[in-house]
Structure formats: C-alpha cells, structure tokens
Amino acid sequence: MMRMGVDLGGTKIELVALGEDGSELFRKRVATPKEYQGTLNAIVALVNEAETAVGCEGTLGIGIPGVISPYTGLVKNANSTWINGHPLDKDLGVLLGREVRVANDANCFAVSEAVDGAAAGKGVVFGAILGTGCGAGVALYGRVHGGGNGIGGEWGHNPLPWMRPDEFNSTECFCGNKDCIETFVSGTGFVRDYKAHGGSADTGAEIMALVDAGDRLANEAFDRYLDRLARAFAHVINMLDPDAIVLGGGMSNVQAIYSRLPAILPRYVLGKECRTPVVKNLYGCSSGVRGAAWLWEKR
Hints:
By secondary structure, the protein is α/β, with parallel strands linked by helices. It contains nine helices and twelve strands. Helix 3 packs across helix 9 (about 285-295), helix 6 crosses helix 7 (about 215-240) and helix 7 (about 215-240) packs across helix 8 (about 255-265). The protein is globular and about 60 Å long.
C-alpha cells in the first residue's frame, strides 16, 4: 500500500509517498499558486506524477494551515486565504476519484511523530510547534484528534497560565486576544521578550549563543522562557496527561530545553510530580508531510 501526503503551505506544496513500512518512495515540491483552482491543479499533478513514478495508486492525505469546519465542510482559519470557504477534500476527491483526508498541519505533525517518529508507540501524543507562531496537535493512538469543533490542539491561543502581574495585558495576538501562550513561547515571543528587557539580538539562535557566552540579559530571558513553557505545558498535562510531548519548529533545536524543562514542570503540575517526556521531533520539517500520509492509518 502506498500512502501519499501533501503539505499545503503558503509558498510551497510538497508531496511525499510512503511505502507500507514508512519508507520514502517519492518526494517533490512545487511553488504554491495563490489561487484555489491552481492549487487543486498543482496537487492533482503531483499525485499523478508520484503514482506514475512509483507504478501504483495510493491514498492521499493533506495537511493545511487551517481546518475543515465540521459544520459547513469548508476550510476555515487558513493563512493561505485562497483555500478558505472551499470544500478542499471534496473538490480534490472529485478530481482524483477517491476519498481525500484533510487535517490541520500541526495535527499532522503530531500523527507523524506518534506513528513512527520521536513518540512512536505512545498512545497519547501532544505535538507543539514552537516557531514563528505556536501551533499544536493531538494524536490519539496514531490518529488525529480534531475535536467536535475541528480545533483540537489549539493550545497556543489560550491565555498563558498563572500569569505574573507584569505579564497581564502585555502582549497582543493576531487572533484578537491578549496574552496568548503563542505570544510568549513561540520563537517570536522569545525574541520579543528579550528585546523588551533591553536585548538587541534578532533571533532565538542569537540569544542562545549569548546564553552560552554567559550574557546576563540572555540568561534571564531564557529563564523566563522556560518558566512560561513549563506553565503552558503543565496545563496540557493537567488536562490531557499525554504519554509524550514532541517539539517542532525553530525552538525545538534549543537543546537546553530538554535538559532543563523537566525539572521545572513539577512546580506547576497537579501533585508536584511529572515525568512526561519532552522530546525533539525525529523528522524535522518533513514531519508534517509524513503525518498527512499517515492520515490513512496502518491496518
């Protein structure tokens, strides 16, 4: 059985075809057309090319930066705005003559790492992408947990837990609310906080280089970042108690998170005990497209 996954992004569309054992059979990416019909045509062309190259038909899953509303059947919340308001799965299904499964790209990330990635074999996996923004997804026994409203895993748009007095009303999020977790624990939030306290570095990597060099402002910023990340994950652990938390995005490359965060989590988790593994992803930027393929789960 061949499974194909597509990562539909704002600038590129990538397709990967996986064998039954998860081995990669085909991969290609193309630029994303900035209109709906062109996007459909590009995906169909990639599918046809993959099936010709491999010599067989396969299933198809799509990861998108949004969700399909369970009420209307139309895409919503996508920053690739030209797909909003369209029945993407149904339209592709008609063009390809088969069922097409669509899920949020962060949920695809969680599924990828749960099926054969850093959390392989774990029952309940929380995948958090700490990059320019802050996305998250939930995989239950290798399958997406989208939820009744289609927004399962939208952890980054809850308020930062246990806020300090100086944290209240200190940030604004694109979603329209203040003090969202995303504005504190994304890579962008890390840099914002560092600069607000007098720093001048422009990236998380630059700040971490200063941390390693013993810079006081950088170390204080990273201490605040770790504490906020611990508070944010403690809420997840208190509600979902996942078997593993897998990190993606640029901040997942900060190795000090994995050595220092476990000691902070018990301060905020109910009962003051916590051994939830927090691990780096296995597949990096390929995890989302692989997870889209795994929307057709193993039988």
